[in-house]
Amino acid sequence: MTTPLATEEEYELVRQYILFGILFQAVMVDWSRLQLVPLKLSYQAMIDGAFQELSRWAERQQQQMRRLLQQRDCTVVRARREGHVYMVHYQQRGYVREARYTIEMLQAECQELIDWWMRNQQRGEKRA
User: Fold this and answer.
1) H-helix or E-strand containing 99?
2) What is any Pfam family matched here (predicted)?
3) Domain for residue 93, yes or no?
């Protein structure tokens, strides 16, 4: 008996689910670190607002990816960093599959997501 292959769409949803989860975690860590840095002027409200919005957006996107995966009978079982690689095991229609992502690529993609989010935030401010 052969195992059915994972579709490109499911693989992409798993990647996005992982990506938004990492982005959320990174934003929360960076936000907490920024609060420890003494500043000459008080930007805290602006910084807090931006980090709150970005973290909420990343979390909502991850939840949406989880729902889309569940609709396809796909669940992430385990995800962890192993050296320079992020290992993900996910269950798809009863079969456990593995996906590997390089840390450098995930970081670059997280930066692209932040850049995209900031551009969209600035567009929204211009309309208001």
Assistant:
1) strand 95-102
2) YhjD
3) yes
Token pair belonging to 6: 């994972």
How far is residue 22's CA from residue 25's CA, in Å, rounded to a whole number?
Answer: 5
Q: Does residue 3 sit within a domain?
A: no
Locus of tokens 């990647």: 15
Can you tell me which residue has the tokens 């992502």? 101
All residues at 6 or more sequence positions from 79 whose CB lies less than 8 Å from its CB, including other chains: 18, 21, 86, 87, 88, 89
pLDDT tens for the 128 residues of the chain, in order: 445 556 788 889 999 999 999 999 999 999 988 888 777 777 778 888 899 999 999 999 999 999 999 999 999 999 999 999 999 999 988 899 999 999 999 999 999 999 999 999 887 765 54
